[in-house]
Amino acid sequence: MAPRKSANTYNFPNPIDNPELVGHNDVLGDFVTAWQGRDAHPIHPVWMLTGPRGIGKATLAYKIAKMVYGNVGDFFIIDMARNIDKDGKPKPDGKSISVYTVRAMIEKMQMSSMSGDWRVILIDSVDELNIAASNALLKLLEEPPAKTLFLLIVHQLANVLPTVRSRARVEKMRPLTIAQLRELCNRFMPDANVSDETLRLANGSFGRIANLKKSGGDAIYDDLINCLRNPRSTSADMMAIAKKIASDPALHGILLDAIAAFGLADLYPAATHAIADIARVNLEPETGLFKIITQIKKCL
Fold first, then answer.
1. Which residues of 147-186 are buried (b: 16+ CB within 10 A; e: fewer)?
2. Which pLDDT tens digit goes with each residue over 108-145?
């Protein structure tokens, strides 16, 4: 196996700084058509970009935003990195976006657009708004301010309040193709050894490939698959893999990917519950993961 480049040397741009959009030309084209024809037909003020994580929703949203807003003071971003608490202090490590963050944006927006240019409010993501924040957003959407475009990024449409969803034009974005994933890998990781197995594992999400590379998860997944396929693998081999996976909770899900890769659908529910129990019951991760690996092995 060719040596893998250190994950720390990869440069994955933040969506706001990424000028390159791969895929989603249909959604972009729909917006451009609506934007260019806004004088004859008023453009819908709320665009909801929904789809799996890591497929380029934020990159598209920022690309649209830069087409629309007039100057820096007309662009408002709500995300976890800009999250604040009740005292207005940064709270980037929170589990949800607070209502105080939304209220602060509304206050700034009320003082903006002296030039009369279009304003853009970009929320990344609506899934991360807490209930109070969602309700504050809903009040704003009930009577959208003039010449204001809302770009709402959504990972799971089911997580959005139906009343919020009903006020938006919902654009369902598709996962990227293998060819598009390969194009992004060549662009941002030109020296990386990205296997076809890793591309399939990504399920159309370049963000997932980036995370796998950062954590070394792609190499661990390859080791897992090789271990399961090898008829001479021992319990010690499987425990060694379990310890690697246990090192990062974000990697636990690759066991479910392995189950899917081998077509063992009957194992999926029990394995899902077992992985959830590892975090919920504070079990020793490597022990719980080892049990799942041995169960997969028995079924092959």
1. bbbbbbbbbeeeebeeebbebbbebebebbeeebbbbbbe
2. 888 765 667 899 999 999 999 999 999 999 999 999 99
